[in-house]
Amino acid sequence: xxxxxxxxxxxxxxxxxxxxxxxxxxxxxxxxxxxxxxxxxxxxxxxxxxxxxxxxxxxxxxxxxxxxxxxxxxxxxxxxxxxxxxxxxxxxxxxxxxxxxxxxxxxxxxxxxxxxxxxxxxxxxxxxxxxxxxxxxxxxxxxxxxxxxxxxxxxxxxxxxxxxxxxxxxxxxxxxxxxxxxxxxxxxxxxxxxxxxxxxxxxxxxxxxxxxxxxxxxxxxxxxxxxxxxxxxxxxxxxxxxxxxxxxxxxxxxxxxxxxxxxxxxxxxxxxxxxxxxxxxxxxxxxxxxxxxxxxxxxxxxxxxxxxxxxxxxxxxxxxxxxxxxxxxxxxxxxxxxxxxxxxxxx
Length: 347
What we know:
3 domains; two-stranded antiparallel ribbon; Serine Threonine Protein Phosphatase 5, Tetratricopeptide repeat; mainly alpha
Protein backbone atom coordinates (compact mmCIF):
# COMPACT_ATOMS: atom_id res chain seq x y z
CA UNK A 1 0.00 0.00 0.00
CA UNK A 2 1.42 3.34 -0.96
CA UNK A 3 1.43 5.97 1.82
CA UNK A 4 0.50 9.50 1.10
CA UNK A 5 2.81 12.40 1.82
CA UNK A 6 0.74 13.46 4.85
CA UNK A 7 0.95 9.96 6.29
CA UNK A 8 4.75 9.90 5.88
CA UNK A 9 5.13 13.19 7.75
CA UNK A 10 2.89 11.91 10.54
CA UNK A 11 4.99 8.74 10.92
CA UNK A 12 8.21 10.79 11.12
CA UNK A 13 6.78 13.05 13.83
CA UNK A 14 5.56 10.05 15.84
CA UNK A 15 9.04 8.47 15.57
CA UNK A 16 10.76 11.57 16.85
CA UNK A 17 8.37 11.85 19.78
CA UNK A 18 8.86 8.17 20.63
CA UNK A 19 12.65 8.56 20.67
CA UNK A 20 12.41 11.67 22.90
CA UNK A 21 10.24 9.88 25.45
CA UNK A 22 12.49 6.84 25.43
CA UNK A 23 15.63 8.97 25.94
CA UNK A 24 14.05 10.83 28.87
CA UNK A 25 13.10 7.56 30.58
CA UNK A 26 16.62 6.20 30.19
CA UNK A 27 18.15 9.41 31.66
CA UNK A 28 15.84 9.23 34.72
CA UNK A 29 16.68 5.58 35.32
CA UNK A 30 20.44 6.19 35.11
CA UNK A 31 20.29 9.21 37.48
CA UNK A 32 18.22 7.33 40.04
CA UNK A 33 20.59 4.38 39.85
CA UNK A 34 23.62 6.67 40.51
CA UNK A 35 21.98 8.36 43.49
CA UNK A 36 20.97 5.09 45.07
CA UNK A 37 24.48 3.67 44.71
CA UNK A 38 26.00 6.75 46.41
CA UNK A 39 23.46 6.58 49.22
CA UNK A 40 24.35 2.94 49.89
CA UNK A 41 28.02 3.73 50.57
CA UNK A 42 29.14 4.36 54.15
CA UNK A 43 29.72 8.01 54.96
CA UNK A 44 33.50 7.65 55.09
CA UNK A 45 33.56 5.89 51.71
CA UNK A 46 31.91 8.68 49.68
CA UNK A 47 33.98 9.08 46.50
CA UNK A 48 36.33 12.08 46.69
CA UNK A 49 38.13 13.81 43.87
CA UNK A 50 41.89 13.73 44.52
CA UNK A 51 43.45 17.20 44.27
CA UNK A 52 46.12 17.61 41.64
CA UNK A 53 49.59 17.92 43.17
CA UNK A 54 50.99 21.48 43.19
CA UNK A 55 54.49 21.71 41.80
CA UNK A 56 56.67 24.44 43.36
CA UNK A 57 59.25 25.58 40.83
CA UNK A 58 62.82 25.82 42.07
CA UNK A 59 63.90 29.45 41.75
CA UNK A 60 66.84 29.99 39.45
CA UNK A 61 69.85 31.82 40.90
CA UNK A 62 69.85 35.53 40.13
CA UNK A 63 72.97 36.37 38.14
CA UNK A 64 75.03 39.36 39.23
CA UNK A 65 74.40 42.25 36.86
CA UNK A 66 77.26 42.88 34.49
CA UNK A 67 78.15 46.57 34.37
CA UNK A 68 77.31 47.98 30.99
CA UNK A 69 80.16 49.65 29.17
CA UNK A 70 78.88 52.94 27.76
CA UNK A 71 79.16 53.57 24.06
CA UNK A 72 81.53 56.22 22.76
CA UNK A 73 82.11 57.78 19.36
CA UNK A 74 85.46 56.00 19.19
CA UNK A 75 84.16 52.42 19.43
CA UNK A 76 84.05 51.64 15.71
CA UNK A 77 87.48 53.15 15.13
CA UNK A 78 88.99 51.16 18.00
CA UNK A 79 87.36 47.99 16.65
CA UNK A 80 89.03 48.61 13.29
CA UNK A 81 92.39 49.66 14.77
CA UNK A 82 92.74 48.06 18.23
CA UNK A 83 96.49 48.71 18.24
CA UNK A 84 96.14 52.45 17.74
CA UNK A 85 97.44 54.07 20.96
CA UNK A 86 95.96 57.48 20.22
CA UNK A 87 92.47 56.04 19.71
CA UNK A 88 92.78 54.16 23.00
CA UNK A 89 93.81 57.39 24.70
CA UNK A 90 90.84 59.26 23.26
CA UNK A 91 88.35 56.57 24.23
CA UNK A 92 89.85 56.38 27.71
CA UNK A 93 89.11 60.09 28.22
CA UNK A 94 85.62 59.57 26.80
CA UNK A 95 85.00 56.81 29.36
CA UNK A 96 86.05 59.17 32.17
CA UNK A 97 83.56 61.75 30.93
CA UNK A 98 80.89 59.01 30.97
CA UNK A 99 81.80 58.03 34.56
CA UNK A 100 83.25 54.66 33.54
CA UNK A 101 86.74 54.84 35.08
CA UNK A 102 87.36 51.07 35.08
CA UNK A 103 86.80 50.90 31.31
CA UNK A 104 89.01 53.97 30.95
CA UNK A 105 91.84 52.23 32.82
CA UNK A 106 91.65 49.28 30.40
CA UNK A 107 92.11 51.59 27.41
CA UNK A 108 94.90 53.57 29.06
CA UNK A 109 96.63 50.28 29.90
CA UNK A 110 96.60 49.31 26.21
CA UNK A 111 97.81 52.76 25.16
CA UNK A 112 100.75 52.53 27.57
CA UNK A 113 101.60 49.00 26.39
CA UNK A 114 101.67 50.30 22.83
CA UNK A 115 103.63 53.45 23.67
CA UNK A 116 105.39 53.66 27.04
CA UNK A 117 106.38 57.28 26.39
CA UNK A 118 102.78 58.55 26.13
CA UNK A 119 102.63 60.87 29.15
CA UNK A 120 98.97 61.74 28.44
CA UNK A 121 97.98 58.10 28.99
CA UNK A 122 99.64 58.07 32.42
CA UNK A 123 97.77 61.23 33.44
CA UNK A 124 94.49 59.82 32.13
CA UNK A 125 94.97 56.54 33.97
CA UNK A 126 95.95 58.47 37.10
CA UNK A 127 92.71 60.42 36.92
CA UNK A 128 90.75 57.17 36.55
CA UNK A 129 92.56 55.64 39.55
CA UNK A 130 91.79 58.80 41.51
CA UNK A 131 88.09 58.39 40.78
CA UNK A 132 88.00 54.80 42.08
CA UNK A 133 90.00 55.84 45.20
CA UNK A 134 93.23 54.06 44.30
CA UNK A 135 95.27 57.13 45.08
CA UNK A 136 98.69 55.52 45.47
CA UNK A 137 98.42 54.14 41.93
CA UNK A 138 97.19 57.52 40.72
CA UNK A 139 100.11 59.34 42.30
CA UNK A 140 102.57 56.91 40.70
CA UNK A 141 101.04 57.59 37.28
CA UNK A 142 101.24 61.37 37.68
CA UNK A 143 104.86 61.09 38.72
CA UNK A 144 105.63 58.79 35.79
CA UNK A 145 104.12 61.35 33.42
CA UNK A 146 106.38 64.04 34.91
CA UNK A 147 109.43 61.84 34.45
CA UNK A 148 108.56 61.67 30.76
CA UNK A 149 107.52 65.32 30.43
CA UNK A 150 108.69 67.53 33.35
CA UNK A 151 106.85 70.63 32.04
CA UNK A 152 103.48 68.88 31.76
CA UNK A 153 101.06 71.30 33.47
CA UNK A 154 98.17 68.82 33.75
CA UNK A 155 100.38 66.26 35.47
CA UNK A 156 101.55 68.87 38.02
CA UNK A 157 97.96 70.04 38.56
CA UNK A 158 96.59 66.53 39.11
CA UNK A 159 99.45 65.63 41.41
CA UNK A 160 98.86 68.80 43.43
CA UNK A 161 95.11 68.23 43.59
CA UNK A 162 95.52 64.68 44.84
CA UNK A 163 98.06 65.70 47.49
CA UNK A 164 95.79 68.52 48.67
CA UNK A 165 92.83 66.16 48.98
CA UNK A 166 95.10 63.81 50.92
CA UNK A 167 96.01 66.63 53.32
CA UNK A 168 99.63 67.02 52.20
CA UNK A 169 99.41 70.75 51.66
CA UNK A 170 103.10 71.66 51.33
CA UNK A 171 103.88 69.33 48.38
CA UNK A 172 100.43 70.07 46.95
CA UNK A 173 101.05 73.83 46.80
CA UNK A 174 104.48 73.28 45.27
CA UNK A 175 103.01 71.12 42.51
CA UNK A 176 100.13 73.51 41.85
CA UNK A 177 102.44 76.52 41.61
CA UNK A 178 104.43 74.55 39.03
CA UNK A 179 101.25 73.90 37.07
CA UNK A 180 100.41 77.62 37.08
CA UNK A 181 103.94 78.45 36.00
CA UNK A 182 103.50 76.27 32.90
CA UNK A 183 99.86 77.19 32.22
CA UNK A 184 98.94 80.41 34.00
CA UNK A 185 95.64 80.93 32.19
CA UNK A 186 93.90 77.86 33.64
CA UNK A 187 91.36 79.11 36.23
CA UNK A 188 90.82 75.65 37.71
CA UNK A 189 94.47 75.35 38.76
CA UNK A 190 94.20 78.68 40.61
CA UNK A 191 91.12 77.32 42.40
CA UNK A 192 93.00 74.16 43.40
CA UNK A 193 95.92 76.19 44.76
CA UNK A 194 93.52 78.45 46.64
CA UNK A 195 91.83 75.41 48.19
CA UNK A 196 95.15 74.05 49.40
CA UNK A 197 96.07 77.47 50.86
CA UNK A 198 92.71 77.81 52.60
CA UNK A 199 92.91 74.33 54.10
CA UNK A 200 96.42 75.06 55.36
CA UNK A 201 95.12 78.20 57.10
CA UNK A 202 96.50 80.87 54.74
CA UNK A 203 93.27 82.78 54.05
CA UNK A 204 95.03 85.87 52.66
CA UNK A 205 96.88 84.01 49.90
CA UNK A 206 93.82 81.88 49.25
CA UNK A 207 91.77 84.98 48.48
CA UNK A 208 94.42 86.15 46.02
CA UNK A 209 94.28 82.87 44.11
CA UNK A 210 90.48 82.75 44.13
CA UNK A 211 90.44 86.29 42.77
CA UNK A 212 92.91 85.27 40.05
CA UNK A 213 90.60 82.40 39.09
CA UNK A 214 87.64 84.78 38.86
CA UNK A 215 89.63 87.15 36.67
CA UNK A 216 90.00 84.26 34.23
CA UNK A 217 86.46 82.89 34.67
CA UNK A 218 83.93 85.16 36.33
CA UNK A 219 81.36 82.34 36.45
CA UNK A 220 83.45 80.03 38.67
CA UNK A 221 81.09 78.96 41.46
CA UNK A 222 83.93 77.17 43.27
CA UNK A 223 86.00 80.36 43.33
CA UNK A 224 83.16 82.46 44.77
CA UNK A 225 82.35 79.85 47.42
CA UNK A 226 86.01 79.34 48.36
CA UNK A 227 86.66 83.06 48.67
CA UNK A 228 83.51 83.41 50.77
CA UNK A 229 84.88 80.81 53.17
CA UNK A 230 88.17 82.71 53.37
CA UNK A 231 86.29 85.95 54.14
CA UNK A 232 84.22 84.18 56.81
CA UNK A 233 87.30 82.70 58.48
CA UNK A 234 88.71 86.23 58.70
CA UNK A 235 85.47 87.50 60.26
CA UNK A 236 84.17 89.37 57.21
CA UNK A 237 80.70 87.83 57.06
CA UNK A 238 79.36 90.55 54.77
CA UNK A 239 82.11 89.87 52.23
CA UNK A 240 81.40 86.15 52.54
CA UNK A 241 77.68 86.64 51.97
CA UNK A 242 78.32 88.85 48.94
CA UNK A 243 80.40 86.12 47.28
CA UNK A 244 77.84 83.44 48.12
CA UNK A 245 75.12 85.61 46.59
CA UNK A 246 77.21 85.87 43.42
CA UNK A 247 77.69 82.09 43.34
CA UNK A 248 73.95 81.48 43.65
CA UNK A 249 73.23 84.08 41.00
CA UNK A 250 75.55 82.22 38.60
CA UNK A 251 74.14 78.76 39.46
CA UNK A 252 71.33 78.79 42.04
CA UNK A 253 71.02 75.00 42.18
CA UNK A 254 74.71 74.14 42.09
CA UNK A 255 75.55 71.82 45.03
CA UNK A 256 78.73 73.79 45.82
CA UNK A 257 76.79 77.06 46.04
CA UNK A 258 74.09 75.49 48.22
CA UNK A 259 76.63 73.85 50.49
CA UNK A 260 78.62 77.09 50.84
CA UNK A 261 75.55 78.99 52.00
CA UNK A 262 74.58 76.17 54.38
CA UNK A 263 78.13 76.13 55.77
CA UNK A 264 78.03 79.89 56.49
CA UNK A 265 74.69 79.62 58.30
CA UNK A 266 75.73 76.54 60.29
CA UNK A 267 79.06 78.01 61.39
CA UNK A 268 78.32 81.69 61.82
CA UNK A 269 74.58 82.45 61.64
CA UNK A 270 72.83 79.98 63.90
CA UNK A 271 69.47 81.76 63.54
CA UNK A 272 69.35 80.39 59.95
CA UNK A 273 69.84 76.71 60.86
CA UNK A 274 66.53 75.65 59.30
CA UNK A 275 67.61 77.20 55.99
CA UNK A 276 71.04 75.62 56.39
CA UNK A 277 69.48 72.17 56.81
CA UNK A 278 67.35 72.54 53.70
CA UNK A 279 70.27 73.76 51.57
CA UNK A 280 72.68 71.12 52.85
CA UNK A 281 70.17 68.35 52.08
CA UNK A 282 69.80 69.62 48.53
CA UNK A 283 73.57 69.83 48.16
CA UNK A 284 73.94 66.21 49.33
CA UNK A 285 71.29 65.12 46.83
CA UNK A 286 73.10 66.85 43.97
CA UNK A 287 76.61 65.60 44.72
CA UNK A 288 78.29 63.92 41.76
CA UNK A 289 80.73 61.62 43.56
CA UNK A 290 81.61 60.19 46.97
CA UNK A 291 84.09 62.90 47.94
CA UNK A 292 81.75 65.76 47.06
CA UNK A 293 78.91 64.04 48.92
CA UNK A 294 81.17 63.57 51.95
CA UNK A 295 81.89 67.31 52.09
CA UNK A 296 78.20 68.18 51.91
CA UNK A 297 77.30 65.54 54.49
CA UNK A 298 79.83 67.09 56.83
CA UNK A 299 77.94 70.40 56.56
CA UNK A 300 74.61 68.66 57.14
CA UNK A 301 76.02 66.76 60.12
CA UNK A 302 77.23 70.01 61.66
CA UNK A 303 73.77 71.54 61.14
CA UNK A 304 72.26 68.63 63.10
CA UNK A 305 74.89 69.12 65.79
CA UNK A 306 73.99 72.80 66.16
CA UNK A 307 70.32 71.81 66.40
CA UNK A 308 71.25 69.39 69.23
CA UNK A 309 70.13 66.44 67.12
CA UNK A 310 73.23 64.56 68.14
CA UNK A 311 72.24 61.03 67.08
CA UNK A 312 71.42 62.26 63.56
CA UNK A 313 74.67 64.22 63.52
CA UNK A 314 76.65 61.09 64.39
CA UNK A 315 74.91 59.00 61.70
CA UNK A 316 75.44 61.68 59.05
CA UNK A 317 79.09 62.28 59.91
CA UNK A 318 79.78 58.54 60.01
CA UNK A 319 78.40 58.28 56.47
CA UNK A 320 80.59 61.22 55.44
CA UNK A 321 83.65 59.54 56.96
CA UNK A 322 82.92 56.28 55.13
CA UNK A 323 82.59 58.04 51.78
CA UNK A 324 85.78 60.02 52.39
CA UNK A 325 87.84 56.95 53.28
CA UNK A 326 90.65 56.31 50.81
CA UNK A 327 93.03 53.40 51.33
CA UNK A 328 91.95 53.11 54.96
CA UNK A 329 92.25 56.82 55.80
CA UNK A 330 89.57 59.51 56.11
CA UNK A 331 91.06 62.12 53.82
CA UNK A 332 89.09 65.09 55.17
CA UNK A 333 90.33 65.45 58.74
CA UNK A 334 87.60 67.92 59.68
CA UNK A 335 84.99 65.18 59.39
CA UNK A 336 86.64 63.12 62.12
CA UNK A 337 86.91 66.15 64.41
CA UNK A 338 83.22 66.98 64.00
CA UNK A 339 82.31 63.33 64.51
CA UNK A 340 84.20 63.17 67.81
CA UNK A 341 82.32 66.21 69.10
CA UNK A 342 78.96 64.77 68.03
CA UNK A 343 79.69 61.40 69.64
CA UNK A 344 80.68 63.09 72.89
CA UNK A 345 77.34 64.92 73.03
CA UNK A 346 75.34 61.85 71.98
CA UNK A 347 76.55 59.76 74.93
